[in-house]
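pasting for ref
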Amino acid sequence: MLTRLKGFLILLTMALLPTFLIWLPFFARLKSFWGIPLPLMGMATIVANYDGPLFMVVAKTFYNPEMIKNLFQFPLPVEYYAAHFPLFPLLIRVFSYTLGYPYAMLAVTLASSFLALYFFNRLAKSFVGKEDSLWLTLVFAFLPARWLIVRSVGSAEPLFIAGLIASVYYFRKGNYWRAAIWGIVAQLTKSPGILLFLAYLAIIIGPEIKRLSISSLAKWPEILALKKVFPILLIPLSLLSVFILYGIKLGDFLAYFHSGDNIHLFFPPFSIFNYSAPWVGTFWLEEVIFVYLLGLLGLSNLIRNKEIVLSWVTGVFLVSLFFVAHRDVIRYALPTVPFLLISFYPTLIRREFKTIMVLLIIPIYLFSLAYISQNVMPISDWAPFL
C-alpha cells in the first residue's frame, strides 16, 4: 500500500509541479523572465489561452445558440462551437459549481494530465522496469514542449490523450470493454478519436483478411471474434451521439463539418508547405520535416519490434498528420508522442540522454512561457465567464 501511495505521489508531482512552475511568473505578475516580456494580467493570461475560453462558452451554454449570441462577445457563428466536442466542457460545467468556470477548466486539465501520465507509466512498465518507466514518464511530462503547454492551460488535449493511452493500454491486454470506455472518452473529447477506432479495426481485420475473402459473411463474426471485440464498436457510436446532440442543439446533424476553418486536413499530403495556406502563413517550416522524421523513425522501431497495436495506432495518426496544413503541426502530432517515446526507450533511458534532458528543461520552460504569453484570446469582458 505504501509503495503504491509513493508511486501515486511521484506521478502526481510530475503532473502538477511543471505546470505550477509555468504558472508562477504569471501568478507573480512578473514584467519579464529571462528577458522574455510577460503580460501583467496574472492568471487571466493562462485562462485566456486558446482555446480555453471557447470551451468555457460551450460549458456555460452547452451549444444553446441564443445563449451563445447573447452572452459572449466572440464574432463567431454558433456552428463554430461544434468543433469543440462536449466531454471536456461538460466536466468544466460539473466542477464550475464549486470552482467557477475558469478554475474548473484548469482543474479538469490538471486532473486529465495526471491521468495521461498515470496510464503512460502503466504502459511503459510493459516495456521497461519500474525505475525506467518513471524516468520515461518524467520525459513525457516535459516533451514535447507543446505538450507541457497544453497541459498548463485550459485544453482538451490532456483528456483526449489520457483516454487514448488508457484505451491502447487495455486493448493490448485484451480488455476490450475498458479499451472501449476509454476510447469513448477520447472520442467525446476530440474528433480525431475516430482514428483510434480505425486503427483497432485494422488490427482486428488485418490478420484475417485472407480468411474473410474466402468465407461467407455468416462466418465473419466468428473469424473476427466479434463476441470479444464488439465493445470497440461503441467508439463510433459515441461519435454518432455527438452528431445527434448537434442536431438537437444546433439544428444541424453535420454541424461539425460546417464549423468553419476548424478542419485542417487537406489534399494532397504535405500541403503544410504551401506558405500561403490560411493556417500556415510562413515559409519557416523546416522543423516540420524533423517532426515527420522522428515520427517515421519511431514507427519503424515499433514495426521492427512487432508491436502491432502501437504500430497501427501510431501509423494511423501519423498518416493523418501528413494531411494537416497548420503551423501548429506539433499539437496535431501529440497523440503519437506517448507511443513514439516508447519506441525510442532504449535511447531515452541511457545516461547520456538523461544529461541532455536536464539541459533541455531550460529551453522547454522558456519556450513555454513565451508561447503562453502570446497565445492569448482578447477578452474585454470577463463577466460571462465567471
